[in-house]
């Protein structure tokens, strides 16, 4: 009997221990929980009880996003104004704001003076229609706690004449930012000793001229810069405007001895150089055609190529590959071998990749241990196009095991390309062929695709065990 009572008492104690109430947790835990909620929901907890009335004021994360509905703009502004007064911003570690500024720049500057405290760790500002210079607090530019900074605005970034030092900034994202003069821009990039990742999207470098980004810790660079197509259509025939545009672009040299990943996606609006970047193992260069000239593309590509000789993964647009082919003699004389390249991808947008392309041929010739090749957007070869590929790239005899083709439509030129690859791939293990669903989505389409597959299975193969996988 005593044992039973003891057991019941013991169970009761366990039950009481497991029923700890939220209100019994330490205040620091409350703040951590509330900081992980959306800001408005965290503030909404003030109605739970009297004890919760002011707990939200200690949150260290604030995320503010203006509604797309114009009639709610004033409501958003009033909400932020009240938040400024009520919240303890001195403990804020992360602050993000999405706001269409318009004529509210003075008000925005006043907000930032309070929200961006000296201990801020992450700051994200996504701003539209910034009509006047944005002013960040002076202490922000010497922050020792900031680790992540994102700024999106089509306006000149206002930098102080005094010291700029982001001692612990690791991740930097700048979108649509207009850089000031060379002096201020250079000082900004000199103050990033711990930077590991930088993203530059549609930034304007014309005021900055020639800039050196020297970051010994930098590991990842992503650059995207697209021309305004409507504006470009109006101006590309005007030689004088083209000449002015060429003289006004920025020139950016990136010194990064620890750089591992480099990605460029754009229209060659600015001039980039990579210096002491021999550790790069993953590179993507998507240069687009539009109104760009192949000669300019060749110069642009060749400069980057000389700094990417140790890549293991490489992705290029077919326009970039073709541009390289236009200067075949220079490439043969100066291009180093890609002795570590094992994965190569070609992306086609406006035209399908031709396997007899001189640019493609020279890259394959300089890639002795290449194992995987991907043709995104299709692959073609004229009936006798293989005769122009001489000598054959050695990698097809010793290393190429996997070939992937996206966008197969069933043309004779595509079949020629597949037939030729099977003929030269002596260690080839598999060819993956992907079709777009709509290309064979018609009466008789699936039957035609099956017939094409049977035809491919009958092609002679240098590697007897090679599979053809039609997806």
From TrEMBL:
InterPro entries in UniProt: F-box-like_dom_sf, F-box_AtFBL13-like, F-box_dom, FBD, FBL60-like, LRR_dom_sf, LRR_FXL15/At3g58940/PEG3-like
Highest taxon of source: Eukaryota
SMART domains linked: FBD
Domain FBD: 394-471
Alphabetical list of SUPFAM superfamilies matching this protein: F-box domain, RNI-like
UniProt protein name: F-box protein At3g59000-like
Organism: Cicer arietinum (Chickpea)
């Amino acid at each position: 009997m005593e044992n039973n009572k003891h057991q019941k008492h013991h169970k009761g104690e366990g039950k009481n221990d497991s029923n700890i109430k939220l209100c019994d947790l330490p205040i620091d835990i409350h703040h951590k929980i509330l900081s992980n909620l959306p800001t408005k929901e965290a503030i909404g907890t003030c109605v739970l009880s009297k004890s919760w009335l002011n707990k939200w004021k200690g949150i260290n994360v604030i995320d503010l996003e203006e509604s797309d509905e114009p009639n709610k703009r004033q409501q958003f502004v009033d909400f932020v104004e009240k938040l400024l007064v009520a919240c303890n911003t001195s403990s804020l570690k992360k602050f993000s704001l999405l706001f269409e500024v318009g004529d509210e720049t003075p008000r925005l500057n006043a907000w930032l003076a309070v929200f961006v405290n000296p201990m801020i760790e992450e700051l994200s500002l996504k701003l539209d229609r910034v009509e006047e210079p944005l002013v960040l607090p002076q202490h922000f530019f010497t922050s020792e706690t900031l680790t992540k900074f994102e700024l999106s605005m089509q306006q000149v970034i206002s930098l102080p004449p005094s010291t700029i030092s982001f001692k612990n900034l690791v991740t930097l994202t700048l979108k649509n930012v207009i850089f000031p003069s060379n002096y201020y821009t250079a000082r900004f990039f000199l103050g990033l000793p711990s930077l590991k990742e930088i993203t530059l999207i549609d930034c304007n470098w014309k005021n900055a001229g020639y800039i050196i980004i020297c970051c010994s810790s930098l590991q990842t660079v992503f650059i995207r810069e697209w021309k305004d197509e409507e504006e470009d259509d109006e101006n590309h025939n005007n030689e004088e405007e083209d000449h002015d545009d060429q003289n006004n672009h920025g020139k950016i040299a990136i010194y990064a001895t620890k750089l591992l990943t480099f990605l460029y996606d754009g229209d060659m609006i600015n001039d980039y150089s990579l210096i002491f970047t021999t550790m790069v193992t993953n590179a993507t260069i998507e240069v687009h055609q539009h109104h760009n000239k192949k000669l300019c593309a060749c110069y642009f590509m060749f400069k980057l190529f000389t700094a990417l000789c140790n890549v293991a993964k490489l992705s290029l647009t077919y326009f970039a590959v073709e541009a390289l082919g236009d200067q075949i003699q220079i490439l043969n004389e100066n291009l180093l071998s890609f002795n570590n390249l094992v994965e190569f991808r070609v992306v086609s947008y406006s035209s399908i990749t031709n396997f007899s392309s001189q640019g493609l041929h020279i890259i394959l010739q300089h890639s002795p241990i290449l194992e995987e090749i991907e043709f995104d957007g299709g692959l073609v070869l004229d009936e006798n196009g293989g005769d122009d590929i001489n000598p054959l790239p050695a990698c097809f005899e010793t290393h190429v095991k996997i070939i992937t083709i996206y966008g197969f439509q069933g043309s004779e030129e595509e079949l020629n390309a597949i037939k030729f690859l099977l003929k030269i791939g002596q260690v080839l293990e598999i060819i993956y062929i992907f079709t777009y669903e709509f290309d064979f989505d018609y009466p008789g389409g699936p039957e035609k695709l099956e017939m094409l597959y049977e035809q491919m299975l009958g092609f002679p193969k240098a590697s007897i065990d090679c599979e053809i996988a039609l997806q």
